[in-house]
Specification:
Blueprint lengths: L1 H13 L4 H30 L9 H39 L4 H5 L12 H25 L6 H51 L1
Helix pairs in contact: 2-3, 3-5, 5-6
């Protein structure tokens, strides 16, 4: 019975390695999006080179300008989405498989890649998703044709909601850092009291 229990628990624990499929899949998807966004950048540069052509009419130059700005926003959106896939892949690996020693030991590594809990992973992903939504709204706003004052009111309302989302996100981060600092301070107080008693 004991052997069966150990075998079952070992098999159950090792089943977490199925997460590697999601880790590798997310990583490959991120690389694919990075590749597509980079190709878009190269094509964008090849078109923008003609922006200074003196033979180009003002209408053509304005059309090129508007399309180039739209493509730039799409590129930013693509890179942000690729970043989400990268964070998701590394976060799953750290949560279910093993810590990435290079990420924890390197001073140059970004703290966004060091995941300590599932809530931490969701929080970091949510920030990037919010940025993607902001960039997507900006892209739609560039192509939006104002036909009535109500359209302008809708645009202003969406901008206000984005500002509110960013405010609450920043406030939540500030609250989390404050609680963490307070906990560290509480942990230091008993040690200080113990040293003071020992001195007396």
């Amino acid at each position: 019975m004991r052997f069966f229990e150990e075998f079952f628990e070992g098999s159950l624990w090792n089943s977490r390695f199925v997460i590697l499929a999601a880790v590798i899949g997310s990583l490959l998807a991120g690389f694919a999006i990075f590749y597509m966004a980079t190709v878009d950048v190269i094509q964008l540069v090849s078109h923008v080179i003609h922006y200074g052509d003196p033979d180009m009419t003002e209408e053509a130059r304005k059309a090129l300008h508007d399309s180039s700005v739209t493509h730039i926003v799409e590129v930013v959106d693509g890179y942000l989405l690729a970043t989400v896939m990268l964070i998701f892949s590394l976060g799953l690996y750290e949560l279910f498989i093993s810590d990435i020693d290079q990420a924890h030991g390197s001073k140059a590594s970004s703290k966004i890649l060091v995941i300590s809990s599932l809530d931490d992973l969701k929080s970091r992903l949510a920030k990037v998703v919010i940025m993607i939504m902001i960039v997507t709204l900006f892209e739609q706003a560039l192509n939006m044709h104002m036909q009535s004052p109500l359209d302008l009111l809708y645009l202003g309302g969406s901008i206000a909601l984005i500002a509110l989302a960013l405010y609450w996100s920043h406030k939540a981060d500030a609250g989390g850092h404050s609680d963490h600092t307070h906990e560290e301070h509480d942990d230091e107080e008993p040690a200080a009291d113990h040293e003071e008693k020992a001195h007396h």
